[in-house]
Specification:
By secondary structure, the protein is mainly alpha-helical. Helix content is 80%, strand content 0%. It has one domain: Up-down Bundle (Growth Hormone, Chain: A), CATH 1.20.1250.20. Helix 1 runs parallel beside helix 7, helix 6 runs antiparallel to helix 7 and helix 10 runs parallel beside helix 15. It is found in: Cell membrane.
Length: 420
């Protein structure tokens, strides 16, 4: 009897979403918790803002370096088994990071921690495409992305205020304990895989999958969306706390770190994306998210704290709408080598985070917040141009323009419009 994937009414579907939500919390709370305490970390270790931001960048670089090897491991031992190994290893490394004696050891441990964490984002969306019915993968992927926003916010919101009270080491250790609990939930809930069996993939399989993906202009365009938008997004969150705790606003660290509550907008927009894509099409939602992100970045230039917070909410909602759409689109478009296709998206996504998130620290130190915002808007503009040039239009629009060619053409265009 053929099996097409779990449906929303099934117990296994609900366990998958809850389990991957817990994994998103465990992964992204660890990955980004230092971002919530960067000013405290910089003062505690006596380093510059850009150097403190390396604690985020080297971890995301580790993710970028590891996602392709993790995709190869998953092809040999199974997606779920690989994710289980990754989450246990990263939890142990999270404790060691909190105990690092100096910036050099901390950065080395963060790099290795990022490489362990890379197993989750590299495989989660691929796993969903294996295990969930194709009609519901966009909604399931959006639910997973919303879990990652909760994790990212939780790590920052736990670490930031605590660092202002007890120091950065106890703060990071507390996050590690929270992540251990979330990891246990993931390990307990995930059902036995049914949609994929390990195939003993070779290195050649991985290379062939990468080559196929890189020959597809639309996939390359989606990879650039991840790199450009994530780079700008992380830079805003890396350096806005320095502005808020500086002379312009003079907020204490325990208050300034609360800006990460804006991640709630990303949680909401990720879930909304799962409903909007079938109605509007992927291309429109992606473009709309990018424009929204740029508008939010511009609002943060204001001298009013309320408007800055509003801008951060708008930027966050726009970014996660675009990211949820692009990441799910990669998995849906890749007909062969899906693990490698989604891994390449994550390589681009986390490389953008690592590079731009670090480099714009020098823009902040040299020219102030206006320079950071100008760079973020420019990155969004380039991403928009790439999206319009490389991503397919909804077929329904082509069908409407070509209506004189017959009912068959129009019906075919209508049937495919929701998947673009």
């Amino acid at each position: 009897m053929s099996w097409d994937g779990h449906l929303p009414e099934s117990r296994e579907y609900r366990r998958i979403l809850a389990g991957l939500g817990a994994a998103g919390i465990a992964t992204f709370a660890q990955l980004y918790s230092p971002q919530g305490l960067l000013p405290t970390l910089a003062r505690g270790l006596g380093v510059a803002p850009a150097d403190a931001a390396l604690s985020v960048s080297v971890a995301t670089l580790g993710v970028a370096l590891a996602v392709l090897p993790w995709s190869w491991v998953a092809d040999r031992v199974g997606r779920l088994r690989a994710m289980q190994v990754a989450i246990v290893a990263s939890t142990a490394l999270g404790v060691l990071v909190a105990l690092a004696p100096n910036i050099e050891v901390l950065l080395a441990l963060r790099l290795v921690e990022g490489m362990a964490l890379g197993g989750l984002p590299a495989l989660a969306v691929t796993y969903l495409h294996d295990e969930v019915h194709a009609r519901h993968t966009a909604a399931a992927a959006a639910a997973y992305i919303s879990g990652t926003t909760i994790g990212g916010a939780a790590g920052r919101l736990v670490a930031g205020p605590l660092a202002g009270l007890v120091g950065w080491r106890p703060a990071l250790l507390t996050v590690a304990v929270v992540c251990a609990a979330a990891s246990a939930v993931f390990l307990r809930l995930m059902p036995r895989p049914r949609g994929y069996r390990p195939a003993g993939a070779t290195a050649r399989t991985v290379v062939d999958g990468m080559r196929t993906s890189l020959r597809d202009p639309a996939l390359v365009g989606l990879y650039l969306q991840g790199a450009l938008l994530m780079g700008g997004f992380v830079a805003v969150y890396n350096y806005l706390a320095f502005r808020l705790e500086g002379p312009e606003f003079a907020l204490p660290a325990t208050v300034g770190s609360l800006i990460f509550a804006a991640y709630a907008a990303g949680t909401a927009s990720s879930r909304l994306t799962g409903r909007l894509v079938p109605r509007l099409g992927r291309r429109r939602v992606l473009v709309g998210g990018t424009l929204t992100m740029a508008a939010g970045a511009a609002l943060t230039l204001a001298g009013s704290l309320a408007v800055v917070v509003l801008g951060l909410l708008v930027l966050t909602a726009g970014f996660f709408a675009a990211h949820a759409t692009a990441s799910a689109w990669v998995g849906a478009r890749a007909s062969t080598g899906r693990a490698q296709a989604t891994a390449l998206y994550n390589v681009a996504y986390y490389s953008g985070s690592a590079l731009v998130g670090w480099v714009l620290g020098y823009a902040w130190s040299d020219r102030g917040w206006g320079s950071v915002v100008a760079s973020v808007v420019a990155l969004a503009a380039v991403a928009l141009v790439v999206a319009l040039a490389t991503l397919p239009r909804p077929r329904s629009h082509r069908g409407a323009r070509q209506g004189v060619r017959g009912m068959r053409t129009r019906l075919g265009a209508f049937d495919g419009s929701a998947s673009e």
